[in-house]
Amino acid sequence: MKKFIYPDSTSLKTALTRPSIDAGDMEELVKSIFDDVSINGDQAIQKYTERFDGVSLNELLVSGEEISLAEKALSTELKTAIKLAASNIKTFHESQREEVVEIETMPGVVCWRKSVGIDKVGLYIPGGTAPLFSTVLMLGIPAVIAGCKQIVLCTPTRKDGTVHPAVLYTAQLIGIKEVYKVGGVQAIAGMSLGTSTIPKVYKLFGPGNQYVTAAKQYAQKLGVAIDMPAGPSELMVVADENSNATFIAADLLSQAEHGSDSQVVLVATDNTIIEKVEIELTKQLADLPRKATAEMALENSSAILVQKVEMLSIINEYAPEHLILQTSFNEELLNGIVNAGSVFIGEYTPESAGDYASGTNHTLPTNGFAKQYSGVSLDSFVKKITFQQISKNGIQQIGSAIEEMAAAEGLDAHKNAVSVRLKNIKG
Amino acid sequence: MKKFIYPDSTSLKTALTRPSIDAGDMEELVKSIFDDVSINGDQAIQKYTERFDGVSLNELLVSGEEISLAEKALSTELKTAIKLAASNIKTFHESQREEVVEIETMPGVVCWRKSVGIDKVGLYIPGGTAPLFSTVLMLGIPAVIAGCKQIVLCTPTRKDGTVHPAVLYTAQLIGIKEVYKVGGVQAIAGMSLGTSTIPKVYKLFGPGNQYVTAAKQYAQKLGVAIDMPAGPSELMVVADENSNATFIAADLLSQAEHGSDSQVVLVATDNTIIEKVEIELTKQLADLPRKATAEMALENSSAILVQKVEMLSIINEYAPEHLILQTSFNEELLNGIVNAGSVFIGEYTPESAGDYASGTNHTLPTNGFAKQYSGVSLDSFVKKITFQQISKNGIQQIGSAIEEMAAAEGLDAHKNAVSVRLKNIKG
């Protein structure tokens, strides 16, 4: 970690700079795969699965038998853990339901809105080094609560053509029936365009590598909505002289192990705690299986000594995806936080808790997007339709205002739609 | 209007096809303007304003004096109408506030979320043929309720370098202080990049022509969020033998006068009502100032005779921006509507009411995007931040599940962030 002691505004800017992402221009490649899938459907899907994943599949849809086998393959401990997490995530996301409330904005004019699940959604679960069954929970549970009628899950297989059993078990646990063995750009193309096997969806969710990200961006051009723009994961930890250095180092490493492009930022009001955390980092790093990745991430990372009074402006300027508050003045900060994805309060609230099981969603805005985007929630899986019903009396109350405004905007037919009604009432 | 009598599925598809939008590729042009604004700031803004709008301005920010003059320029009737609309829109959007509710997902694990206004938002109000002060209400009121700290409004001037007084009056009425005389691509570039005069914003809202739409898409590539993808406005009216043909014709024309690319669709269970509406259309068209526009829109439009039982699937397949229900079986339809922007129920509820004054928002998903997008609401101006606080007891309850899941995903540092805490508690 680079260390910054009471940085001036220029140094602070350096300390909070995210690693630049060289996305490259993958649009050509992505477009060619989409075009191919559009013309050749499943055949193209299978071709790219063979080419990129080295797997040849006859059947893309995971069978009932595979799902039964998955359940048997997992330990009871893991299944219990997944059920506990699912229960908490369900409880929190169910609390996000919005009741229909009729509002009489003026006599005879009643307006309301109603949340309706998006009919068809696509969830992408990456394969790669880790089987992200936790993401199945985070995307699948709100989709089910929202009442999405068709929930399509695509995930690449392992080299032997099977999907990790934890992913299959989790999917069936929460009620997802359609799991397809497809990954990468071809999965996103399949769900965006539809093939004879893979259904076309209206909105795409889920993380992925730079190819998947580019494919989701391209899908958006075709009118498919996406959850949010993607970027590397990040964590900011706020500490003071009372913080526990062991906890903080563990939290920083839990973020750093995600990827070499991850970033962690420690902001502290005390130099001693920074030094203690540095010592702890070295100690804990030694035993980590993903040590090399974490070390690279730490190179992109900063420890910053600041005055307490600067804390809020630093948090809000950085707009961290994850923010851990481990100070004796957490309560003072809480009201002032305006830019953050998810906030972890107090020394017994590690980021890991939100990543897996506290109940909050772990699909969050990265790369400073917490300034304008929310994390995934029940809202992400619904549209809110507005309704209005105006009585005879209501249109008499509101009619002349509409006529006046429509005329002033030069929209006479808008005005006339009211006038014919008022005339009819007067007889 | 093209007429379809009990169409089969192929004809129905034709009947519901939207006019194709030849957006062309404007990205080159848009990029060149963004690049210029990025380097030359206000100077570039002024150059393009002179080139595209034929107006030369020394000062982009609208002055207090101009706002005072605007108030004097409007009739009392119009000001009263705007105030009434503002009050209804405020009432309905204030009802969309979400209270903070703490959820204890399991003992010692408390999660909640909090809506926070997006700090900096940009509202674009087109100039052109109509001064869209109603859109100032629809975007400005939720922005103010959300607590957005900086609300920037850009709008092109008229040929004499002034902004229409209704736009200025409405802006000051609802509390918008920064109005800039800039339109088109250069306005979107200014708000996306920031200049010495125009502030950089995090999210852009508002309608516009194809250039503005292309500029908003380009802004999104730079990390600025936008309200929703744009398309021509549209209306579906559902009728039966009891409907009032005069009202329906007036509603269809109110949509058709928007632009030659607008579309209206009449779906009826009775052929006589379709014939009556056609006669009424001809009659009402004769007197319309925007007759030519409305006629062109009607050429893109359909009247469809269907069985009552098909009604819901037609509505949901088309996913209309505006949907008017003027039948004796409205109540039967309501629960089944899943894809629509805003719904107008009953014969005294014209679309005009929602366009101006009922309280609902008129910025709605077009082009079938009601399948996956909501209209603008208070939600559009906030981010929802999640929080969690776990007690010593809580981490003991939830800790082993997190450890189990992290280990199964191969993320040992995630596991360790819990293990160090459990170890510390056990002493």
Instruction: Tell me, briefly, the overall form of chain A.
Output: globular
Helix content of chain A: 40-55%
In the CATH hierarchy, what is the superfamily of the largest domain in chain A? Nitrogenase molybdenum iron protein domain
Oligomerization category of the chains in this entry: homodimer
CATH architecture of the largest domain in chain A: 3-Layer(aba) Sandwich
Name of the level-1 CATH class of the largest domain in chain A: Alpha Beta
How many domains comprise the coordinates of chain A?
3
Q: Would you report the number of β strands of chain A? A: 14
- Radius of gyration from the alpha-carbon trace of chain A, in angstroms: 26 Å
Most residues in contact: chain pair: A-B, 127 and 127 residues
Unreliable spans of chain A are none
